[in-house]
Design brief:
Layout: E1 4-10, E2 13-25, E3 29-33, H1 38-41, H2 43-53, E4 61-68, H3 80-91, E5 102-104, E6 107-108, E7 114-115, H4 120-129, E8 134-137, H5 142-145, E9 152-155, H6 159-166, H7 182-185, H8 202-214, E10 218-221, H9 228-235, H10 244-257, E11 269-270, H11 278-282, E12 283-284, E13 289-290, H12 292-295, E14 300-303, H13 311-315, H14 318-323, E15 325-329, E16 334-338, E17 342-347, H15 366-373, H16 378-382, E18 386-389, H17 404-422, H18 433-439, H19 444-456, H20 461-478, H21 485-506
Parallel strand pairs: 3-4, 5-8, 8-9, 10-17, 10-18, 11-14, 14-17
Antiparallel strand pairs: 1-2, 2-4, 6-7, 12-13, 15-16
């Protein structure tokens, strides 16, 4: 008994599913075993209809289809074609050759046509990572999804064409029907603010450019009208475009979550309301699906009015902010989703917004101010690279500011240097500590300077590593291979500013 290769998904991680079929003389029956869900159990009728259309007689025969490994739950209709081929290999006289380097991913119609299914793109993505050399697909536009994959994608129209291909009688051609709709292939319309629209706030702009280049987290704080929301909207426009493999990864996350997003090169931008629950932010459910932090993968998670979120919800962000992924465990399933997002948050200093302002009188009591500011826990604040206090600034009518396109060009070059240095698509802000230290190229004097500052200010080992990450990103923006003394000093200055804001926040005096 020979099996047919397919791919199943546990969250975003794929695993090989081997499809076996047994056909013997017995009471007429068709069974699918191996923990199939309801949609796979309904495949029985689709398979029987296809077999009848091909003239295959199953009278007085018992057909058993096994999806291995038997202890993993199988979902979706992407196993249809693999199951049909497994049955045909048992009942047809002419052999159907199939090697272990070929994977079949397609649903079926009642008349034997190969059709797409919801998780096709992530399944193809994982099949390539699992080492399959050839992936049989429905008639989709492989020129779009195949740019970043090493596997050969074989689009076919129906089961007859598939059998001819496996027997070496047919060479597939480029299909007409795309996997993406015309709407999805169109570039997303940019409705964000351009950086040139934000006048003044030069310190915050510099910090956000560093954050965009290295994937660092930032918090903006200040009274209403100081420009927090404008800076947050403009931040997305200075992020570089995604590479082909990153586009496919992000699109796969949205396919699993059933989210609406085109196949776009622009990084995702998510801005959940402050009433969002912890499950909607992190992900979850009986069979967990991605949450907002995974939908913001390779992009921005903007939390406006941070003080309005519940403290319990915010603390759920602590682990994903450092690891770049989130693991969701439930009774029936445990899955891991990517979550390498850049956190950008904004908050007022108090419920009314005017604590510490010289323009309007604050109406909040000291207890209200302290309770509002302590919504953000110390460990979460410690994971922020920038805490930027903003004030209403005046500006000259002749003032000019750089547009987002110019800044984006600099951040793109800085990111390319990081990808080349680490050998993968990771940034200084989310690379592992060992990778950052290995490639930091700090001199002994610079290392002593960082150690002395951290010792004097009683900063933690995590803060020492953050200083090196920031200095490395500043050097990448400057285009230098080695970290300069000026980059180290600038990183220390940013951390001192963030530390000052964190200390005052913990004492209820955030200004």
């Amino acid at each position: 008994m020979e099996d047919v290769q397919c791919v199943g998904l546990d969250g975003m991680k794929g695993h090989v599913v081997r499809v076996e079929a047994s056909v013997r003389m017995d009471r007429e029956r068709f069974m699918i075993v191996g923990l199939p869900d309801a949609s796979i159990k309904e495949s029985k009728e689709r398979l029987l209809s296809c077999l009848h259309g091909m003239g295959v007689e199953l009278e007085m025969k018992k057909v058993t289809v096994h999806l291995s490994p038997a202890d993993k739950r199988k979902t979706g209709t992407g196993y249809d074609t693999a199951m049909l081929v497994a049955v045909l290999r048992e009942v047809m006289e002419e052999p159907i050759p199939l090697d272990e380097e070929t994977c079949i991913l397609a649903s079926l119609s009642l008349d034997g046509k190969l059709e797409t299914f919801r998780e096709l793109v992530p399944a193809v993505h994982q099949a390539a990572h699992l080492g399959f050399r050839r992936i049989v697909l429905p008639p989709v536009d492989v020129s779009v999804i195949g740019r970043s994959l090493s596997a050969q994608l074989v689009p076919l129209y129906d089961i007859s064409q598939l059998l001819d291909y496996l027997r070496g009688r047919y060479t597939p051609e480029a299909p007409d029907a795309p996997v993406f709709t015309a709407e999805e292939l169109q570039p997303e319309t940019n409705t964000m603010q351009d950086f040139s629209f934000v006048r003044g706030q030069s310190q915050a702009k510099r910090a956000l450019e560093i954050a965009a280049a290295g994937g660092h987290h930032a918090l903006l704080t200040g009274p209403p009208g100081c420009g927090k929301s404008m800076l947050a909207d403009a931040f997305h426009t200075i992020l570089p475009d995604l590479q082909d493999d990153e586009m496919l990864e992000v699109y796969s996350v949205y396919q699993i979550a059933r989210g609406r997003r085109g196949y776009s090169a622009r990084p995702p931008y998510r801005a959940p309301h402050h009433s969002a629950s912890g499950i909607s932010l992190i992900g979850g459910g009986t069979y967990p699906i991605p949450g907002e932090i995974s939908l913001a993968h390779r992009g921005v998670l903007f939390l406006d009015e941070l003080g309005e979120f519940s403290r319990k919800t915010l603390d759920l962000l602590r682990q994903p902010m450092e690891s770049g992924y989130v693991t969701i465990s439930r009774v029936r399933q445990s899955v891991t989703y990517p979550a390498a997002f850049t956190l950008l948050a904004s908050t007022n200093p108090c419920p009314c917004g005017y604590y510490g302002s010289s323009e309007r009188y604050c109406t909040c009591t000291p207890q209200q101010v302290k309770a509002y500011q302590l919504k953000v826990s110390g460990p979460l604040l410690d994971r922020l690279d920038f805490v930027l206090p903003l004030k209403n600034e005046g500006f000259s009518t002749g003032e000019t500011a750089e547009c987002s396109e110019v800044i984006r060009a600099r951040t793109a070059l800085a990111r390319q240097r990081q990808y080349k240095r680490y050998g993968q698509t990771v940034l200084n802000g989310n690379a592992s500590g060992s990778m950052v230290l290995e490639h930091s190229r700090l001199t002994d004097e610079q290392a002593d300077r960082i150690e002395a500052v951290c010792y004097g200010r009683k900063w933690s080992n995590r803060t020492q590593l953050k200083l090196i990450r920031l200095a490395r990103t500043i050097a990448d923006l400057d285009g230098t291979e080695a970290i300069s003394d000026a980059a180290v000093e600038e990183a220390v200055d940013w951390k001192q500013l963030a530390s000052l804001q964190q200390d005052t926040a913990r004492s209820g005096l955030f200004k």
